[in-house]
């Protein structure tokens, strides 16, 4: 058995689609695909307007961080160090501080979502491709998987009634020890 990846091949249906009899509709909320240029262009427009409104400089470094985030598979979560190494390998001269600051600007402008999982440094993912999802984080190999379970909607509705509250959001992270053998993430595990 090998580790199922979060990026199924184009012609390969993920198991949740192949298995129609499944009672509960739990599914990976996003399917990875190659970043498309239109999306990146849209993100750049939004960023440009944001920087203008803020009176911040439109530096090439900031745009390159945006590019790199949106070139990732859309369900990938990356930290500052990961982005730094990726960009350095591509020949960019950019500091960790610039990446860190730019990611903050991307979060502020609604182009990135920041997560803080237990024992992990902050991780970022694209926001334009984002549909709400929750995460499973493996304690051992650190692999992060996304899921979306409609039962949470029912829980929010019933607890909203119970607490006489309009529930506006939720966050759920499941931590567990996955049983994936030879997981590719184990060797690449964050040594934290
Ligand atoms: Zn694991
Ligand atoms: Zn995610």
Can you offer a commentary on this structure?
There is one protein chain. The chain is of the alpha+beta class and 192 residues long. The protein has two domains: 34-128, Winged helix-like DNA-binding domain superfamily/Winged helix DNA-binding domain (Arc Repressor Mutant, subunit A), CATH 1.10.10.10; 131-192, Ferric-uptake regulator, C-terminal dimerisarion domain (Dna Ligase, domain 1), CATH 3.30.1490. 38% of the residues lie in helices and 11% in strands. The protein has helices at residues 15-18, 37-54, 60-71, 80-89, 96-108, 151-162, 184-187; strands at residues 112-115, 123-126, 134-138, 144-147, 173-176. The chain has a three-stranded mixed β-sheet with strand order 4-3-5, with no helix packed on it. A two-stranded antiparallel sheet has the order 1-2. Helix 2 (37-54) packs antiparallel against helix 3, helix 3 (60-71) crosses helix 5 (96-108) and helix 4 crosses helix 5. It is globular, with a radius of gyration of 18 Å. The chain starts with 14 loop residues before the first helix and ends in a 5-residue tail after the last helix. The model is unreliable at 1-34 (pLDDT under 50). One zinc ion binds at residues 77, 125, 133, 135, 146.
Order of helices and strands: HHHHHEEEEHEH
Total number of strands:
5
CATH top-level class of the largest domain: Mainly Alpha
By CATH, the superfamily of the largest domain comes out as Winged helix-like DNA-binding domain superfamily/Winged helix DNA-binding domain
Structural class estimated from helices and strands? alpha+beta
Q: Low-confidence stretches at least 5 residues in length (pLDDT < 50)?
A: 1-34
Report, as a whole number of angstroms, the end-to-end distance.
27 Å
């Amino acid at each position: 058995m090998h580790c199922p990846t979060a990026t199924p091949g184009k012609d390969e249906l993920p198991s949740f689609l192949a298995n129609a009899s499944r009672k509960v509709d739990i599914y990976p909320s996003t399917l990875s695909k190659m970043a498309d240029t239109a999306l990146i262009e849209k993100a750049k427009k939004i960023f440009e307007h944001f920087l203008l409104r803020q009176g911040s400089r439109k530096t090439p470094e900031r745009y390159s961080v945006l590019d790199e985030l949106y070139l990732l598979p859309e369900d990938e979560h990356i930290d500052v160090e990961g982005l730094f190494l990726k960009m350095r390998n591509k020949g960019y001269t950019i500091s960790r501080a610039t990446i860190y600051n730019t990611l903050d600007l991307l979060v502020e402008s609604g182009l990135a979502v920041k997560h803080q999982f237990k024992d992990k440094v902050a991780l970022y993912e694209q926001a334009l491709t984002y549909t709400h999802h929750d995460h499973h984080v493996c304690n051992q190999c650190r692999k992060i998987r996304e899921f979306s379970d409609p039962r949470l909607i029912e829980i929010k509705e019933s607890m909203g009634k119970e607490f006489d509250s309009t529930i506006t959001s939720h966050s759920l992270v499941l931590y567990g020890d996955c049983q994936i053998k030879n997981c590719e993430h184990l060797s690449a595990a964050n040594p934290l």
